[in-house]
Amino acid sequence: MGTPLDTPTEQAEEVIDRLQEEYPEPEISLQFSNRLELLVAVILSAQCTDERVNAETEHLFEKYKSPEDYANADEAELAEDLNSITYFNSKAGYLKNACQQIVEEHDGEVPDTMSELTDLPGVGRKTANVVLQHGHDVTEGVVVDTHVQRLSRRLGITEAKRPENIEDELMSVVDREYWQNFTHWLISHGRDTCTARNPDCSECLLEDICPSSKVQHDVDLADGSEW
């Protein structure tokens, strides 16, 4: 019990097999109807729950419908429109500046390459990967959010600590066809069972292969802390 398979690749494959059966139709939880809305939602989701973002964007998308709307917005007013979002002042600046760049350099269209997206203010690889996968149907990497970061370490698939290093390792052990859904499977499992502070190891479908299982082990490999 609580013993991982011999290699990270085998471990990842087994995790995928089980989570794919548990969550056969994984979906992104952010709500959007076009690429701009997706970009905005993902920028806002940094260190904020998707539920909170969805509640905020429901009215935001009625007011701001184009990159020009954000680019020409009064930044203080835009920040006020985001005031239930974490770091809303900074994110208002990101949205305004990113959309100015989209208008000036991309003819008002959300870019479709990793380099162009990550050149936008407030957009890192995680955000760019989400926009590419769900806005442009392009998969260049694995989205590493807090759930993926926690579970991939907790399950012994990687020992890397930084998101970019975790992504590199996941891309080497997870088949490319699963890169997009792998994120959604770990997010779903992280929300339902393998929570940050009190995972329900006794009811976990991965417990027997998890080297962090509280049933058999004393250390949470996600952060090296003792249970």
Please tell me about this protein's structure.
The protein is mainly alpha-helical. It folds into two domains: 8-26 and 143-226, Helix-hairpin-Helix base-excision DNA repair enzymes (C-terminal) (Endonuclease Iii, domain 2, Orthogonal Bundle), CATH 1.10.1670.10; 35-135, Hypothetical protein, domain 2 (Endonuclease III, domain 1). It has eleven helices and two strands. The protein has helices at residues 8-22, 35-44, 50-63, 67-71, 75-81, 88-105, 114-118, 125-135, 146-154, 163-173, 179-192; strands spanning 219-220, 225-226. A two-stranded antiparallel ribbon has the order 1-2. A hairpin with a 4-residue loop joins strand 1 and strand 2. Helix 2 (35-44) packs antiparallel against helix 8 (125-135) and helix 5 (75-81) crosses helix 6 (88-105). It is elongated. Its EC number is 4.2.99.18. Residues 44-192 form the HhH-GPD domain. This is Endonuclease III. Its cofactor is [4Fe-4S] cluster. Pfam families: EndIII_4Fe-2S, HHH, HhH-GPD.
